[in-house]
Amino acid sequence: MAMTLSSGSINLLTRRVFYSKPNIQAKPVSSLRLEGRTVASSMSYDKELAAAKKAASLAARLCQALPLTLCFLCCVNVQKGLLQSDVHSKSDKSPVTVADYGSQVLVSFVLKRELPFESFSLDSGDLRKQEGQETLQRITKIVNDTLDSDLACNEFPLSEEDVLDAIDSGKSEGGSRGRHWVLDPIDGTKGFMRGDQYAIALALLDQGKVVLGVLSCPNLPLASIASSDRHAHDKVGCLFSAQVGGGTYMQSLDGAPPVKVHISATENPEEASFFESYEAAHSLHDLSSSIANILGVKAPPVRIDSQAKYGALSRGDGAIYLRFPHKGYREKIWDHAAGCIVVTEAGGVVTDAAGIPLDFSKGRYLDLATGIIVTNKKLMPALLKAVRESLEAKASAL
Ligand code: AMP
Ligand code: MG
Where, by residue number, does Mg(2+) bind (predicted)? Predict the structure, then answer.
Protein backbone atom coordinates (compact mmCIF):
# COMPACT_ATOMS: atom_id res chain seq x y z
CA MET A 1 0.00 0.00 0.00
CA ALA A 2 1.37 3.39 -0.94
CA MET A 3 1.60 5.92 1.85
CA THR A 4 1.49 9.62 1.52
CA LEU A 5 3.76 12.04 3.17
CA SER A 6 1.98 13.04 6.34
CA SER A 7 4.04 16.01 7.34
CA GLY A 8 7.55 17.30 7.16
CA SER A 9 9.37 17.80 3.94
CA ILE A 10 11.46 14.72 3.36
CA ASN A 11 10.16 12.85 0.39
CA LEU A 12 13.05 10.56 -0.28
CA LEU A 13 15.40 8.31 1.52
CA THR A 14 17.56 6.14 -0.55
CA ARG A 15 17.40 2.54 0.57
CA ARG A 16 20.73 2.19 -1.04
CA VAL A 17 23.64 3.16 1.08
CA PHE A 18 26.90 2.39 -0.55
CA TYR A 19 30.10 3.12 1.21
CA SER A 20 32.68 2.76 -1.48
CA LYS A 21 36.30 2.08 -1.10
CA PRO A 22 37.87 1.52 -4.48
CA ASN A 23 41.44 0.99 -3.33
CA ILE A 24 41.07 -1.12 -0.24
CA GLN A 25 43.65 -3.81 0.38
CA ALA A 26 41.85 -7.09 0.83
CA LYS A 27 43.61 -9.63 2.99
CA PRO A 28 44.71 -12.60 0.85
CA VAL A 29 44.54 -15.94 2.62
CA SER A 30 45.98 -17.72 -0.34
CA SER A 31 46.91 -16.05 -3.54
CA LEU A 32 44.44 -17.42 -6.07
CA ARG A 33 44.33 -15.33 -9.22
CA LEU A 34 42.03 -15.51 -12.17
CA GLU A 35 42.63 -13.47 -15.31
CA GLY A 36 44.87 -11.15 -13.38
CA ARG A 37 42.24 -10.48 -10.67
CA THR A 38 42.34 -11.79 -7.15
CA VAL A 39 39.49 -14.22 -6.62
CA ALA A 40 37.15 -12.99 -3.90
CA SER A 41 36.75 -16.44 -2.31
CA SER A 42 40.46 -16.47 -1.47
CA MET A 43 40.05 -13.50 0.85
CA SER A 44 39.24 -13.36 4.51
CA TYR A 45 36.55 -10.86 5.39
CA ASP A 46 36.47 -11.75 9.11
CA LYS A 47 37.03 -8.19 10.29
CA GLU A 48 34.45 -6.75 7.91
CA LEU A 49 31.94 -9.46 8.83
CA ALA A 50 32.37 -8.81 12.55
CA ALA A 51 31.80 -5.07 11.95
CA ALA A 52 28.75 -5.76 9.78
CA LYS A 53 27.22 -8.03 12.44
CA LYS A 54 27.77 -5.40 15.11
CA ALA A 55 26.29 -2.67 12.91
CA ALA A 56 23.20 -4.67 11.93
CA SER A 57 22.60 -5.80 15.53
CA LEU A 58 22.72 -2.25 16.83
CA ALA A 59 20.38 -1.08 14.06
CA ALA A 60 17.99 -3.88 15.07
CA ARG A 61 18.07 -2.60 18.63
CA LEU A 62 16.99 0.83 17.42
CA CYS A 63 14.11 -0.67 15.44
CA GLN A 64 13.03 -2.87 18.36
CA ALA A 65 12.93 0.17 20.60
CA LEU A 66 9.83 1.22 18.70
CA PRO A 67 7.38 -1.51 19.80
CA LEU A 68 3.70 -1.69 18.84
CA THR A 69 1.11 0.75 20.13
CA LEU A 70 -0.11 3.30 17.70
CA CYS A 71 -3.14 2.54 15.56
CA PHE A 72 -2.58 3.90 12.13
CA LEU A 73 -2.72 2.88 8.50
CA CYS A 74 -6.27 1.55 8.27
CA CYS A 75 -6.21 0.30 11.86
CA VAL A 76 -3.13 -1.78 11.35
CA ASN A 77 -0.74 -1.61 14.28
CA VAL A 78 2.42 0.27 13.74
CA GLN A 79 5.51 0.57 15.84
CA LYS A 80 5.20 2.40 19.15
CA GLY A 81 6.95 5.71 19.21
CA LEU A 82 6.67 5.86 15.46
CA LEU A 83 4.69 9.05 14.99
CA GLN A 84 2.61 9.72 11.93
CA SER A 85 5.04 12.50 11.13
CA ASP A 86 7.84 9.93 11.21
CA VAL A 87 6.52 8.21 8.09
CA HIS A 88 7.34 9.73 4.75
CA SER A 89 7.08 8.49 1.22
CA LYS A 90 9.88 8.09 -1.28
CA SER A 91 9.62 9.10 -4.90
CA ASP A 92 8.24 5.62 -5.73
CA LYS A 93 5.55 6.14 -3.01
CA SER A 94 7.01 3.45 -0.76
CA PRO A 95 7.18 4.44 2.91
CA VAL A 96 10.24 5.46 4.81
CA THR A 97 10.40 6.09 8.52
CA VAL A 98 12.72 7.81 10.95
CA ALA A 99 13.74 4.28 11.88
CA ASP A 100 15.13 3.83 8.35
CA TYR A 101 17.28 6.90 8.86
CA GLY A 102 18.22 5.85 12.38
CA SER A 103 19.25 2.39 11.21
CA GLN A 104 21.31 3.96 8.45
CA VAL A 105 23.09 6.30 10.87
CA LEU A 106 23.97 3.47 13.25
CA VAL A 107 25.29 1.19 10.50
CA SER A 108 27.36 4.02 9.07
CA PHE A 109 28.62 4.98 12.52
CA VAL A 110 29.63 1.43 13.49
CA LEU A 111 31.32 0.66 10.16
CA LYS A 112 33.35 3.84 10.41
CA ARG A 113 34.31 3.10 14.00
CA GLU A 114 35.20 -0.55 13.40
CA LEU A 115 36.88 -0.10 10.02
CA PRO A 116 38.68 3.22 10.43
CA PHE A 117 40.70 2.86 7.25
CA GLU A 118 37.65 2.73 5.02
CA SER A 119 37.01 5.97 3.16
CA PHE A 120 33.50 7.36 3.13
CA SER A 121 32.17 9.96 0.80
CA LEU A 122 30.03 12.74 2.22
CA ASP A 123 27.26 14.74 0.65
CA SER A 124 24.33 16.73 1.94
CA GLY A 125 20.61 16.02 1.66
CA ASP A 126 17.13 17.27 2.52
CA LEU A 127 17.67 16.89 6.25
CA ARG A 128 20.16 19.73 6.12
CA LYS A 129 17.39 22.04 5.01
CA GLN A 130 15.30 24.02 7.48
CA GLU A 131 12.15 21.92 6.88
CA GLY A 132 14.02 18.72 7.78
CA GLN A 133 14.97 20.03 11.24
CA GLU A 134 12.22 18.31 13.22
CA THR A 135 12.93 14.95 11.63
CA LEU A 136 16.65 15.39 12.15
CA GLN A 137 16.12 16.07 15.87
CA ARG A 138 13.97 12.97 16.15
CA ILE A 139 16.53 10.77 14.37
CA THR A 140 19.33 12.15 16.54
CA LYS A 141 17.31 11.31 19.65
CA ILE A 142 16.51 7.70 18.71
CA VAL A 143 20.09 7.09 17.59
CA ASN A 144 21.49 8.48 20.84
CA ASP A 145 18.95 6.52 22.89
CA THR A 146 20.18 3.34 21.17
CA LEU A 147 23.86 4.17 21.58
CA ASP A 148 23.18 4.97 25.23
CA SER A 149 22.17 1.34 25.69
CA ASP A 150 25.43 0.18 24.08
CA LEU A 151 27.87 0.43 26.96
CA ALA A 152 30.89 -0.07 24.72
CA CYS A 153 30.28 3.23 22.96
CA ASN A 154 32.14 6.26 24.21
CA GLU A 155 31.73 8.63 21.25
CA PHE A 156 28.41 9.65 22.67
CA PRO A 157 26.15 11.57 22.22
CA LEU A 158 26.18 12.17 18.48
CA SER A 159 25.46 15.70 17.36
CA GLU A 160 23.01 16.52 14.58
CA GLU A 161 26.00 17.17 12.35
CA ASP A 162 27.38 13.66 13.12
CA VAL A 163 23.98 12.24 12.18
CA LEU A 164 23.88 14.16 8.92
CA ASP A 165 27.39 13.01 8.04
CA ALA A 166 26.42 9.40 8.71
CA ILE A 167 23.28 9.67 6.60
CA ASP A 168 25.19 11.29 3.79
CA SER A 169 27.85 8.63 3.66
CA GLY A 170 26.30 6.60 0.91
CA LYS A 171 26.56 7.99 -2.56
CA SER A 172 28.39 5.27 -4.45
CA GLU A 173 26.72 3.71 -7.46
CA GLY A 174 28.21 0.24 -6.86
CA GLY A 175 29.59 -1.56 -9.91
CA SER A 176 32.21 -4.11 -10.85
CA ARG A 177 35.28 -2.38 -9.40
CA GLY A 178 36.42 -1.77 -5.86
CA ARG A 179 34.50 -2.49 -2.69
CA HIS A 180 31.06 -1.21 -1.84
CA TRP A 181 28.95 -1.64 1.27
CA VAL A 182 25.33 -2.15 0.32
CA LEU A 183 22.68 -1.43 2.93
CA ASP A 184 18.94 -1.63 3.14
CA PRO A 185 18.48 0.04 6.56
CA ILE A 186 14.99 -1.44 6.90
CA ASP A 187 14.09 -3.93 4.22
CA GLY A 188 10.34 -4.46 4.28
CA THR A 189 9.30 -1.14 5.81
CA LYS A 190 5.66 -2.12 5.27
CA GLY A 191 6.21 -5.26 7.36
CA PHE A 192 8.01 -3.18 9.99
CA MET A 193 5.07 -0.80 10.28
CA ARG A 194 2.60 -3.69 10.50
CA GLY A 195 4.69 -5.29 13.25
CA ASP A 196 5.53 -8.22 10.96
CA GLN A 197 8.82 -9.24 9.41
CA TYR A 198 11.55 -6.85 8.33
CA ALA A 199 15.32 -7.00 8.11
CA ILE A 200 18.39 -4.84 8.31
CA ALA A 201 20.31 -6.09 5.29
CA LEU A 202 23.99 -5.30 4.89
CA ALA A 203 26.38 -6.76 2.30
CA LEU A 204 29.84 -6.08 0.96
CA LEU A 205 30.59 -6.19 -2.76
CA ASP A 206 34.18 -6.78 -3.83
CA GLN A 207 34.89 -6.48 -7.57
CA GLY A 208 31.16 -6.85 -8.25
CA LYS A 209 30.70 -10.04 -6.18
CA VAL A 210 28.88 -10.27 -2.88
CA VAL A 211 31.55 -11.42 -0.42
CA LEU A 212 29.69 -11.10 2.85
CA GLY A 213 26.15 -10.54 4.01
CA VAL A 214 24.31 -9.99 7.26
CA LEU A 215 20.56 -10.12 7.84
CA SER A 216 19.28 -8.88 11.13
CA CYS A 217 15.64 -10.01 11.55
CA PRO A 218 14.25 -8.68 14.86
CA ASN A 219 10.80 -10.29 14.51
CA LEU A 220 11.81 -13.67 13.07
CA PRO A 221 11.30 -16.56 15.53
CA LEU A 222 14.46 -18.38 16.56
CA ALA A 223 12.65 -21.67 15.94
CA SER A 224 11.50 -22.70 12.48
CA ILE A 225 8.47 -20.80 11.24
CA ALA A 226 7.28 -24.16 9.88
CA SER A 227 6.80 -25.40 13.44
CA SER A 228 3.18 -25.89 14.47
CA ASP A 229 4.05 -25.58 18.17
CA ARG A 230 2.43 -22.32 19.31
CA HIS A 231 5.15 -21.57 21.83
CA ALA A 232 7.97 -22.24 19.37
CA HIS A 233 7.48 -18.73 18.02
CA ASP A 234 7.68 -16.93 21.33
CA LYS A 235 11.38 -16.16 21.10
CA VAL A 236 12.27 -13.85 18.22
CA GLY A 237 15.29 -11.98 16.88
CA CYS A 238 17.72 -13.67 14.47
CA LEU A 239 21.03 -12.60 13.02
CA PHE A 240 22.18 -14.45 9.87
CA SER A 241 25.72 -13.97 8.60
CA ALA A 242 27.76 -15.38 5.78
CA GLN A 243 31.04 -14.77 4.04
CA VAL A 244 32.15 -16.27 0.78
CA GLY A 245 33.43 -19.82 1.26
CA GLY A 246 32.66 -19.77 4.99
CA GLY A 247 29.08 -21.07 5.28
CA THR A 248 26.07 -19.39 6.86
CA TYR A 249 25.51 -18.92 10.58
CA MET A 250 22.54 -17.89 12.66
CA GLN A 251 22.50 -16.55 16.19
CA SER A 252 19.99 -14.80 18.35
CA LEU A 253 20.14 -11.02 18.38
CA ASP A 254 20.62 -11.16 22.14
CA GLY A 255 24.07 -12.59 21.57
CA ALA A 256 23.93 -16.41 21.83
CA PRO A 257 26.72 -18.22 19.96
CA PRO A 258 26.22 -18.72 16.22
CA VAL A 259 25.21 -22.08 14.76
CA LYS A 260 25.84 -23.21 11.19
CA VAL A 261 22.66 -23.49 9.13
CA HIS A 262 21.79 -25.37 5.95
CA ILE A 263 19.10 -25.06 3.35
CA SER A 264 16.45 -27.82 3.19
CA ALA A 265 17.73 -30.96 1.47
CA THR A 266 14.33 -32.10 0.28
CA GLU A 267 14.11 -33.44 -3.25
CA ASN A 268 10.39 -34.01 -3.08
CA PRO A 269 8.23 -30.99 -4.06
CA GLU A 270 5.29 -32.56 -2.19
CA GLU A 271 7.24 -32.00 1.04
CA ALA A 272 8.39 -28.52 0.10
CA SER A 273 6.77 -25.27 1.13
CA PHE A 274 7.40 -22.03 -0.68
CA PHE A 275 7.87 -18.42 0.41
CA GLU A 276 6.72 -15.29 -1.37
CA SER A 277 6.17 -11.59 -0.61
CA TYR A 278 3.40 -10.70 1.79
CA GLU A 279 2.57 -7.76 -0.45
CA ALA A 280 0.74 -8.81 -3.62
CA ALA A 281 2.01 -5.59 -5.20
CA HIS A 282 5.58 -6.90 -4.89
CA SER A 283 5.15 -10.32 -6.47
CA LEU A 284 2.57 -12.09 -8.66
CA HIS A 285 0.88 -14.49 -6.27
CA ASP A 286 -1.15 -16.18 -9.02
CA LEU A 287 2.00 -16.96 -11.00
CA SER A 288 3.71 -18.47 -7.91
CA SER A 289 0.63 -20.54 -7.29
CA SER A 290 0.66 -21.87 -10.86
CA ILE A 291 4.40 -22.72 -10.59
CA ALA A 292 3.82 -24.50 -7.26
CA ASN A 293 0.93 -26.50 -8.78
CA ILE A 294 2.98 -27.63 -11.76
CA LEU A 295 5.86 -28.56 -9.46
CA GLY A 296 3.56 -30.55 -7.18
CA VAL A 297 3.92 -28.45 -4.03
CA LYS A 298 1.04 -29.27 -1.68
CA ALA A 299 1.55 -26.70 1.07
CA PRO A 300 -0.02 -23.24 0.83
CA PRO A 301 2.32 -20.27 0.27
CA VAL A 302 4.12 -18.80 3.25
CA ARG A 303 3.94 -15.01 2.86
CA ILE A 304 6.61 -13.00 4.64
CA ASP A 305 7.99 -9.50 4.19
CA SER A 306 11.59 -8.66 3.46
CA GLN A 307 14.80 -10.66 3.16
CA ALA A 308 13.78 -12.51 6.31
CA LYS A 309 12.60 -14.99 3.64
CA TYR A 310 16.21 -15.64 2.63
CA GLY A 311 17.17 -16.09 6.29
CA ALA A 312 14.33 -18.52 7.00
CA LEU A 313 15.15 -20.42 3.81
CA SER A 314 18.85 -20.68 4.74
CA ARG A 315 17.94 -22.68 7.85
CA GLY A 316 15.42 -24.91 6.04
CA ASP A 317 12.11 -23.46 7.26
CA GLY A 318 10.89 -23.82 3.67
CA ALA A 319 12.49 -25.05 0.46
CA ILE A 320 11.58 -22.52 -2.23
CA TYR A 321 11.32 -18.73 -2.63
CA LEU A 322 9.48 -17.32 -5.65
CA ARG A 323 9.54 -13.63 -6.53
CA PHE A 324 7.86 -12.31 -9.67
CA PRO A 325 7.42 -8.51 -9.56
CA HIS A 326 4.82 -6.83 -11.73
CA LYS A 327 5.89 -5.78 -15.21
CA GLY A 328 8.29 -2.86 -15.30
CA TYR A 329 9.67 -3.19 -11.75
CA ARG A 330 13.46 -3.12 -11.55
CA GLU A 331 15.01 -5.09 -8.69
CA LYS A 332 17.60 -3.20 -6.62
CA ILE A 333 20.77 -4.86 -5.40
CA TRP A 334 20.17 -3.88 -1.75
CA ASP A 335 17.00 -5.97 -1.72
CA HIS A 336 18.91 -9.19 -2.51
CA ALA A 337 22.69 -8.89 -1.92
CA ALA A 338 22.77 -9.99 1.73
CA GLY A 339 19.97 -12.54 1.26
CA CYS A 340 21.65 -14.08 -1.74
CA ILE A 341 24.93 -14.88 0.03
CA VAL A 342 23.12 -16.04 3.17
CA VAL A 343 21.25 -18.62 1.06
CA THR A 344 24.08 -19.66 -1.27
CA GLU A 345 26.54 -20.18 1.59
CA ALA A 346 23.90 -22.39 3.23
CA GLY A 347 23.87 -24.57 0.10
CA GLY A 348 21.08 -22.92 -1.89
CA VAL A 349 20.88 -21.57 -5.42
CA VAL A 350 19.58 -18.10 -6.33
CA THR A 351 18.87 -17.34 -9.99
CA ASP A 352 16.63 -15.33 -12.23
CA ALA A 353 13.64 -17.02 -13.86
CA ALA A 354 15.87 -18.24 -16.68
CA GLY A 355 18.32 -19.95 -14.31
CA ILE A 356 21.03 -17.29 -14.58
CA PRO A 357 22.81 -16.32 -11.33
CA LEU A 358 22.16 -12.76 -10.12
CA ASP A 359 24.75 -10.23 -11.23
CA PHE A 360 25.48 -7.61 -8.57
CA SER A 361 28.20 -5.90 -10.60
CA LYS A 362 26.05 -3.65 -12.77
CA GLY A 363 25.32 -0.85 -10.32
CA ARG A 364 22.11 -0.24 -8.42
CA TYR A 365 19.85 -2.55 -10.42
CA LEU A 366 19.88 -6.27 -11.07
CA ASP A 367 18.13 -6.06 -14.44
CA LEU A 368 16.80 -9.59 -14.53
CA ALA A 369 14.68 -11.61 -16.84
CA THR A 370 11.26 -11.75 -15.12
CA GLY A 371 11.84 -12.88 -11.54
CA ILE A 372 13.99 -14.44 -8.84
CA ILE A 373 13.81 -18.06 -7.75
CA VAL A 374 15.60 -19.77 -4.89
CA THR A 375 15.83 -23.41 -3.82
CA ASN A 376 18.33 -26.21 -3.24
CA LYS A 377 20.50 -27.71 -5.98
CA LYS A 378 18.42 -30.86 -6.33
CA LEU A 379 15.06 -29.13 -6.74
CA MET A 380 16.30 -26.36 -9.03
CA PRO A 381 16.04 -28.22 -12.40
CA ALA A 382 12.39 -29.18 -11.72
CA LEU A 383 11.64 -25.67 -10.45
CA LEU A 384 13.12 -24.08 -13.56
CA LYS A 385 11.00 -26.37 -15.74
CA ALA A 386 7.84 -25.45 -13.79
CA VAL A 387 8.70 -21.73 -14.06
CA ARG A 388 9.22 -22.04 -17.83
CA GLU A 389 5.92 -23.87 -18.30
CA SER A 390 3.99 -21.36 -16.17
CA LEU A 391 5.47 -18.39 -17.98
CA GLU A 392 4.65 -19.98 -21.35
CA ALA A 393 1.08 -20.69 -20.24
CA LYS A 394 0.74 -17.09 -19.00
CA ALA A 395 2.08 -15.70 -22.30
CA SER A 396 -0.21 -17.85 -24.41
CA ALA A 397 -3.25 -16.80 -22.33
CA LEU A 398 -2.68 -13.14 -23.23
P1 AMP B 1 9.26 -8.10 0.01
O2 AMP B 1 8.83 -7.85 1.38
O3 AMP B 1 10.03 -9.37 -0.19
O4 AMP B 1 8.17 -7.93 -0.99
O5 AMP B 1 10.35 -7.03 -0.33
C6 AMP B 1 10.34 -5.75 0.14
C7 AMP B 1 11.06 -4.90 -0.87
O8 AMP B 1 10.34 -4.91 -2.09
C9 AMP B 1 11.13 -3.47 -0.47
O10 AMP B 1 12.30 -3.21 0.23
C11 AMP B 1 11.12 -2.72 -1.77
O12 AMP B 1 12.39 -2.26 -2.13
C13 AMP B 1 10.71 -3.75 -2.79
N14 AMP B 1 9.60 -3.26 -3.61
C15 AMP B 1 8.97 -2.08 -3.53
N16 AMP B 1 8.02 -1.99 -4.50
C17 AMP B 1 8.07 -3.14 -5.19
C18 AMP B 1 7.35 -3.64 -6.30
N19 AMP B 1 6.39 -2.94 -6.88
N20 AMP B 1 7.66 -4.87 -6.76
C21 AMP B 1 8.62 -5.60 -6.16
N22 AMP B 1 9.34 -5.19 -5.09
C23 AMP B 1 9.07 -3.96 -4.61
MG1 MG C 1 14.17 -3.32 0.64
Answer: 184, 186-187, 335
Residue of the CA atom closest to atom 4 of ligand 1: 277
**Proximal ligand: closest to the CA of 188:** 1
Which residue, among 202, 21, 27, has the nearest Cα to 116 in the 3D structure?
Answer: 21
Q: Is 184 annotated as a binding residue?
A: yes
Q: What separation in Å is there between the alpha carbon of 134 and the centre of ligand 2?
A: 25
Q: Give the integer Cα–Cα distance in Å for 39 and 320.
A: 29
Q: What integer pLDDT is reported at residue 326 of this predicted model?
A: 95
Residues in the chain, overall count: 398
Which burial class, exposed, middle or buried, applies to 163 when counting CB atoms under 10 A from its CB (0-12, 13-18, 19+)? buried
Alpha helix segments (H runs only) across the chain:
46-64, 98-114, 133-148, 160-167, 189-194, 285-295, 308-314, 337-344, 380-397
Which tens digits make up the pLDDT trace of 166-222? Answer: 777 656 678 898 888 898 999 998 999 889 999 999 999 999 999 999 999 999 999
Q: Shortest CA distance to 194 belongs to which of 276, 78, 279, 85?
A: 78
CA of 187 to the centre of ligand 2 (A): 4
CA–CA dist 104, 117 (Å, integer):
19
Rounded-to-10 torsion of CA 364, 368, 374, 380: -150
Question: What does the buried/exposed string (b/e) look like for 203-232 if buried means 16 or more CB atoms within 10 Å of the residue's CB?
Answer: bbbbbbbbbbbbbbbbbbbbbebeeeeeee
- Catalytic residue (one of 14, 97, 100, 248): 100
* Predicted confidence (pLDDT) per residue in 324-372, tens digit: 999 999 999 999 999 999 999 999 999 999 999 999 999 989 988 789 9
- For the entire predicted model, the pTM comes to 0.85
Sequence-distant (≥ 6) Cβ neighbours of residue 160 within 8 angstroms: 136, 137, 140
In percent, the amount of the chain with pLDDT more than 90 equals 53
Spell out where the chain has E strands.
Answer: 17-21, 27-28, 33-34, 37-38, 43-44, 68-72, 76-79, 87-89, 95-97, 179-187, 199-206, 209-221, 236-243, 248-252, 259-261, 274-277, 302-304, 320-323, 348-352, 372-376
293, 246 contact by CB (below 8 A):
no
Residue 100: active-site member: yes
Alpha carbon of 119 to ligand 1 centroid (Å): 30
